[in-house]
Amino acid sequence: MPAPSAPTAPGPEAGPTATGRLELRDVVKVFSNRGKDVHAVHGVSLDIAPGEFVTLLGPSGCGKTTTLRMIAGFEDATSGRVVLDGRNMVSLPPNKRPMSMVFQSYALFPHLSVRENIAYGLKLRRTGPEEIREQVEVALTSMNLNSLADRAPNELSGGQQQRVALARAMVTRPKVLLFDEPLSNLDAKLRVRMRLEIRRLQQRMGITSIYVTHDQAEAMTMSDRIVVMNAGRIEQVATPEEIYRRPASVFVADFIGRANFLAATARDVDGGRCSARVLGATIQAPCHEGVSSGSGATVIVRPESVRLSPSTGEGAGGAGGSELVGAHGRVLSSVFYGDHVEYEVETEAGTILCVESDPEPASVHAEGDDVMIGIEASRAWVLPEETADGE
Ligand SMILES: Nc1ncnc2c1ncn2[C@@H]1O[C@H](COP(=O)(O)OP(=O)(O)OP(=O)(O)O)[C@@H](O)[C@H]1O
Ligand SMILES: [Mg+2]
């Protein structure tokens, strides 16, 4: 059971002018488990700008929570530094770090009312009663909790409890807010609403935030930058758009969204572009800096960049720079979702996934149809072929 949200106990330099620049330098965590070492985090380095919203994203067990807990001070780093505004935090206990953490389990004090829960951190800081009253009112209003202020946590829904946890974390004006899967216990609709709410509040207050999730939709919609982690290491740090369009590895491309992976040989690498032969035709596409002429490559094509046309037709789309590629395929499955259709198409290069949004009813392909496959080459992305090094 995690400790309750760590109230801030800022030093004299904290306050409304606090900047909140966070640096992780070669942070390592090795757990010792019954004589066996578990390398949870393998030397993570990261620079987070004041007011930035950064998400740690990755599969279960990749070290997200451990990294967050080392930032908060709930876990000692085996080595490395956590530096906030030039000050090494590593030897400080959690309550001496100007940070607050919001947990999946809410971690509210069950015997305190909503109002008292929110006031708790301010009381610890010996804030005057008048100011506490004022700041708690502001927090209650900003989280839409006024009518619930006198209830106990067990008289609230999950979403309401999480709003209290958020108000409690923010009321002390920490330099850094830490979130560990705060929306996981909520239903799908509420999650969508809460992620907008958290983002809006965070932007309004300008607090540096680190958010842990394994939900890519959360990461994509909330973050200034996403840190994709895999087995204790950082795979890529970039904006959501870059992560999606220019993934640094097959792992990232596979973890974020869906993709077709086509083996090819890269040719004519020049100025961040190369040509590659896929699905029976040569395409020109943007490529990763690690791609070299004549070497093996993986062409990544998102399903929405694949176009299908009847194999008897004149060409695949043609609109939006779509390139006709020579391959024929047969529709294995065609699933209508209302706003889009998803196809699996059998080709010589394997099964290709295609998503067509807002389809014309007359042009929807049926299972068993023969089709031509087109790729929007400018939307494809070429990575160097990866040598298997295990996870
Ligand atoms: N106290 C501990 N003792 C030993 N090993 C631990 C301990 N805490 C975590 N680990 C191990 O460290 C690794 C990283 O765990 P961590 O909780 O950081 O993963 P996570 O990315 O947050 O995963 P999830 O998405 O499931 O929450 C895992 O292999 C885990 O088993
Ligand atoms: Mg975790």
Automatic annotation (TrEMBL):
UniProt keyword Mitochondrion, yes or no: no
SUPFAM superfamilies on file: MOP-like, P-loop containing nucleoside triphosphate hydrolases
Highest taxon listed in the record's lineage: Bacteria
This protein's record includes keyword Nucleotide-binding: yes
Alphabetical list of Pfam families matching this protein: ABC_tran, TOBE_2
Domain ABC transporter, chain residue ranges per copy: 22-256
A Gene Ontology term for the protein's cellular component: ATP-binding cassette (ABC) transporter complex
GO molecular function ontology, one term from the record: ATP hydrolysis activity
InterPro entries documented for this protein: AAA+_ATPase (IPR003593), ABC_SmlMolc_Importer (IPR050093), ABC_transporter-like_ATP-bd (IPR003439), ABC_transporter-like_CS (IPR017871), Mo/tungstate-bd_C_term_dom (IPR008995), P-loop_NTPase (IPR027417), Transp-assoc_OB_typ2 (IPR013611)
Keywords: ATP-binding, Nucleotide-binding, Transport
SMART domains noted in UniProt: AAA
Record protein name field: Fe(3+) ions import ATP-binding protein FbpC 1
Source organism: Actinomyces gaoshouyii
